[in-house]
Amino acid sequence: MAITLTDQDKNTLRTAAYGAITLVTAAGAAVGSPHRIATQGSLALASATGQVGYVLAENTKIANLNGKSVAEIADQVLPALTTAMGLLKKQDPAEADNFRSTVLVAVEAAVRPKKGEPSPVMVEMVRKITAALDAA
Known about the structure:
Elements lengths: L6 H22 L5 H13 L3 H8 L12 H22 L1 H19 L8 H15 L2
Helix pairs in contact: 1-2, 1-4, 1-5, 1-6, 2-5, 4-5, 4-6, 5-6
């Protein structure tokens, strides 16, 4: 099933997906390498397939991801995740599932430490991102 996304819809999807990586990067900066976190997450998003993959591959600037705190970033990203899931579910539930799994794989790749377990801070941020995805 083909879906029709406006430029605003595409911006919401990119804000949600890349914002999730920005959010875990900001949350994990104190416990890991922000560069490694962001790189691993972004590489995972770059491997997305389906219509979600095409939208995430578009080279456009994403606004409002430069908050001064994790809370400011979360205020933008968590609602965008819920909105993105809602608009995809309305048009194509399979593509909504693709988006959800793409974001969660990217977040898991980002928070995976070189050794040991992810920090409690990172685990909690993954929980909040998952809850936002599932709220739609």
